[in-house]
Specification:
The chain is mostly beta strands. Helices cover 0% and strands 56% of the residues. Strands 2, 4, 5, 6, 9, 10 and 11 form a seven-stranded mixed sheet that branches. A hairpin with a 6-residue loop joins strand 9 and strand 10.
């Protein structure tokens, strides 16, 4: 049984900052990639940022230079520092964890809402 605790979403004004946190617990091992996806109303879910256990980073072009992803392997946690937020960043943000090995799995958190509005 795998559980995620996501936090940090909320309402922020344009230009503001938020930090999202996601901690995985339970029967989850051999984490390979941890990341954040988002889904805005009427749009498909898209990758925001990801980080592998080797430290390889990936960012959506729309967030490069503004968002920073990091992880704490020991705590099975991933973080997303979001700066210079724009109204178009408004979405539900989902934590994603991919494990490796013969029983590789793809896990999703329940999501946390980020609203950027004045």
């Amino acid at each position: 049984q795998v559980q995620f605790v996501e936090s940090g979403g909320g309402l922020v004004q344009p230009g503001g900052s938020l930090t999202l946190s996601c901690a995985a617990s339970g029967n989850i091992f051999s984490i390979y990639v941890m990341g954040w996806y988002r889904q805005a109303p009427g749009k498909q879910r898209e990758l925001v940022a990801s980080i592998t256990n080797g430290g390889r980073l990936s960012y959506a072009d729309s967030v490069k230079g503004r968002f920073t992803i990091s992880r704490d392997g020991a705590k099975k946690s991933v973080y997303l520092q979001m700066n210079s937020l724009k109204p178009e960043d408004t979405a539900v943000y989902y934590c994603n964890v991919v494990t490796s090995g013969l029983n590789a799995m793809n896990y999703w958190g329940k999501g946390t809402l980020v609203t950027v509005s004045s």
